[in-house]
């Protein structure tokens, strides 16, 4: 195994193993990738390998078009989706895809997750976007590549910045999240699942809940984000 990629493989392995620990995946339902932009490659979980069988050595290294550079196993079937996002969005360094229960249920319902409370606003200042279902011609084409562009198109149509909103529900499919580091991307995946669960429970208690008023959304978001944030400790 090429030692050149040892650290990158280890980072991807650790991030992938966080998914079952956080109850975000079952069996082989998901993957994490981690990029090395200086080498123009990323590391990703191999396709169909159960988490209990995963080791750092099994992590696959691919280029920004999904071609395997190092590794003996086939990379995740979602590899070219990750590749599209790394090519188009230069400031992300890790991507997570899961089929976590509550977030996937919202995706299958083709609904954005509304901002019902301050917990949501602490992390995202808008509803979690759910993309439209993919068109038939794209499904029959290069499906995984088109999935990447489906994500990008949703953000363009909504006028959203991927650096501010770091999560999406793919219509009829499941969630993707990303971040500036593996920890950040996995954390976003866990946050998304919890926001999805809270929103679902809110609608069970009150079938027609009001969304949070804009002043509270901005107050809670800006406490944690932006130049005037004051949550947490200063470095």
User: Could you give me the name of the CATH homologous superfamily?
Assistant: Class II aldolase/adducin N-terminal domain
Strands of the widest sheet, in order across it, are 4-3-2-1-5-7-6
Largest sheet: 7 strands, antiparallel
Rg from alpha-carbon coordinates: 18 Å
Q: Shape from CA axes?
A: globular
What do the pLDDT scores average to?
A: 96
Strand element count: 7
Describe the structure.
The protein is α+β, with helices and mostly antiparallel strands. The protein has one domain (3-224): L-fuculose-1-phosphate Aldolase, CATH 3.40.225.10. It is built from 8 helices and 7 strands. It has helices at 6-21, 79-88, 101-108, 118-121, 136-139, 143-158, 182-205, 214-224; strands at 30-36, 41-44, 60-63, 68-70, 94-98, 167-169, 175-179. α2 (79-88) crosses α6 (143-158) and α3 (101-108) crosses α7 (182-205). The radius of gyration is 18 Å and the shape is globular.
Secondary-structure blueprint of this entry?
Elements: H1 6-21, E1 30-36, E2 41-44, E3 60-63, E4 68-70, H2 79-88, E5 94-98, H3 101-108, H4 118-121, H5 136-139, H6 143-158, E6 167-169, E7 175-179, H7 182-205, H8 214-224
Antiparallel strand pairs: 1-2, 1-5, 2-3, 3-4, 5-7, 6-7
